[in-house]
């Protein structure tokens, strides 16, 4: 096996303990990148770090809750003081399916803080570090849900729409610099037991474009380094993107909402 050349700089991946983030970290390690792995406390991030180290690169983990602004600033200050960063993957995110009226304020706030505030602040604070490198890459993880509003998700697709627009605008702003910005729009992925159950409850519509996190991660990293500024995963998600663009909102909104409503437990429907 031909080993990738070991890098002197680091790649930082948020939400690295499971799912897409975990496999993105592994793909970057295979390319010789040292890793800074960020995850919530008690999510067994040490195991991912051990797997990364087995690929002959450095792996440092940092446990924190990115829904707290002070935690985000503490993380980025620590990174800037100790590491040269050439790749930033903003993968940490939160979704869920609930009636907006019945969900609590903390649920709404945590989605906004993790999906919107955290990636924007992380990039803002790490951008001087990234600009010091010979070349640097930012990948923000949005969602296919960003292409339409959806009832019973409400806040989540709106937050991922922010990620899409923010990333596209930042790509244009940094186009003449050494920092390349991309955004990926994953479709359904069975990243954990809860997500897998919700996908299954949606029926066949919810499984369109379904990919494993391993395959999605490979596509993400390959397309990022090919400098694709908007990444869709697989032919089915390309078709979904086209359909989202041409189907009128008065048709797709109730259709998607009906599918998503099936994720709710019968007792709260």
Q: Could you explain how this protein is built, in words?
A:
- This protein is an alpha/beta fold and 269 residues long.
- It is built from nine helices and seven strands; from the N terminus they run E-H-E-H-E-H-E-H-E-H-E-H-H-E-H-H.
- The chain has helices spanning 19-30, 45-53, 69-82, 105-131, 155-173, 193-202, 213-225, 234-246, 249-261; strands spanning 10-14, 34-39, 59-63, 85-90, 136-141, 179-185, 230-232.
- The protein has a seven-stranded parallel β-sheet with strand order 3-2-1-4-5-6-7, with helices on both faces.
- Strand 1, helix 1 and strand 2 (34-39) form a beta-alpha-beta unit.
- Helix 1 packs parallel to helix 2 (45-53), helix 1 (19-30) crosses helix 7 (213-225) and helix 3 (69-82) runs parallel beside helix 4.
- The protein starts with 9 loop residues before the first strand and ends in an 8-residue tail after the last helix.
- Mean pLDDT is 90; it is low at 195-203.
């Amino acid at each position: 096996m031909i080993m990738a050349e070991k890098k002197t700089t680091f790649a930082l991946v948020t939400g690295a303990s499971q799912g897409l983030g975990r496999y993105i970290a592994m793909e970057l390690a295979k390319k010789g990148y040292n890793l800074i792995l960020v995850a919530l406390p008690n999510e067994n991030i040490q195991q991912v770090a051990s797997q990364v180290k087995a690929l002959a690169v450095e792996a440092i983990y940092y446990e924190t809750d990115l829904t707290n602004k002070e935690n985000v600033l503490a993380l980025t200050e620590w990174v800037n003081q100790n590491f040269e960063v050439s790749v930033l993957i903003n993968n940490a995110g939160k979704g869920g399916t609930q009636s907006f009226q019945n969900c609590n304020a903390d649920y709404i706030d945590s989605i906004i803080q993790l999906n919107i505030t955290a990636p924007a602040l992380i990039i803002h604070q790490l951008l001087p570090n990234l600009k010091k490198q010979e070349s640097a890459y930012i990948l923000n993880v949005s969602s296919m849900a960003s292409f339409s509003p959806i009832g019973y998700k409400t806040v989540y697709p709106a937050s991922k729409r922010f990620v899409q627009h923010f990333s596209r605008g930042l790509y244009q702003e940094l186009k003449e610099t050494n920092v390349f910005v991309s955004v990926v729009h994953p479709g359904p992925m069975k990243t954990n037991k809860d997500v897998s159950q919700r996908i299954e409850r949606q029926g066949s519509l919810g499984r369109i474009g379904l990919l494993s996190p391993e395959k999605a991660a490979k596509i993400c990293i390959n397309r990022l380094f090919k400098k694709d500024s908007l990444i869709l995963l697989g032919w089915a998600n390309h078709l979904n993107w086209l359909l989202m663009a041409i189907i009128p909102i008065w048709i797709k909104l109730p259709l998607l909402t009906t599918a998503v409503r099936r994720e709710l437990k019968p007792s709260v429907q």
